[in-house]
Structures are given as structure tokens and as C-alpha cells.
């Protein structure tokens, strides 16, 4: 006799890379993924960033959200340009394609309820930094996960500085994780929980895309 199954297979393909990110977030509140973007993808995105920078589309980053902007140079010195998905160029379409796949996966497997996302390019010229902060201090408590990907070229030297330092609490003791902005590397962390800073860039310019996955 043929046994009929009483359940149906849901259309779902497990992704080991995304599972690692989820596991990291659950166990230590942050995840570092090398080669999240390929060398070619990094190059395409860096060209797009530099093109916009040369067209003077960047502005000095501010403290506060977009309706409450005050420039405080002693806190952060980077230049940013918000990326609009509706007006995305080829490089940005590629970027959003990858990000949307990740967000769909997180929503389907973790019920994170990510409904909004926002991303900007960032350039840290030599001598600039971003002092220790929590991403939700910009009175935006909808920010759930912070995302950074580094678009430096393959010759990026650790001596250039510009490390991301994440501060963690381990058994009541503060410890820090120092992360070099290597091309293709992605860092994702809990926006509301982890304070972090960008150390001064000592040589060269530091390129990245930073963004937030937000709940309602
Ligand atoms: O670029 C980084 O590594 C982090 C940037 C950051 O903390 C921010 O833009 O809020
Ligand atoms: Fe931040």
C-alpha cells in the first residue's frame, strides 16, 4: 500500500552562510563574514562609491537622524551618501539583490520582522574616525541590525588604521573585538546592544557601505 504524506515540503533551501550569521548573532550578538562580497563585487561597488564622491554627492556625516542633524566633527569625520534603492545603478542593484536575499532569509527563519532597510556609502579620509557609540542613539529605536561592508582595495594594510572596535560584555568584564576593514568583509551586529567605534584612519582613505535593518 502507498503511504501518503500528510505534510507538504515548504519551499525552503537552507543556506550555511546565513545560518552561520544567525548562529553568531544568537550566541555573541555579532558576526564577521569574510568574502561576503567577491573581489569583483567589491570593485564594482567601490567604483560606484568613488564616482559619486567625485561628482560631489557626498556630505559630511551628521549626528542624529535625518530630521535632527548637527555636525560634530569631534565625534565623527566621515562623508556619506545615502543609497536609494529606487534609483539604484547597476552596482547598487547587485548590492540590493544580495541584501534582499539575506533579509528574506532572516525574516523567514528568525521571524525578525525586518520591514525597512537603509544604507549609505561612507568615506573616512585620513585623520578621521567615529567615536564610540550605539547606533540607536540617533533616536531611531527601529534599528535592529547594523551592517557594514568594506570596499577598500586588496592592498589595504592594517597599518592604515580605521579598525572597527566592538565592545562586548563577557561575564561582567568589558572586552573588545578589533576588526580590520578588509575588502569583501561584512560585519553584522545588534544595533541596540553593542557599542562600537571606528579608530582613526592613519593613511589612505577608508571605503564602506553601512546600513541598518529595521523593524516597524
Ligand atoms: O564603518 C564601520 O566600521 C562602522 C561605522 C559605524 O559605526 C556607523 O556608521 O554607525
Ligand atoms: Fe555605528
UniProtKB/TrEMBL annotation:
Q: Extract the GO molecular function terms from the UniProt entry.
A: ferrous iron binding; L-ascorbic acid binding; peptidyl-proline dioxygenase activity
Which example biological process does GO assign this protein?
A: cellular response to hypoxia
Fe2OG dioxygenase domain residues: 110-215
- What's the name of the protein? SM-20-related protein
Q: Which cofactor does it need?
A: L-ascorbate
Keywords tagged on the record: Dioxygenase, Iron, Metal-binding, Oxidoreductase, Vitamin C
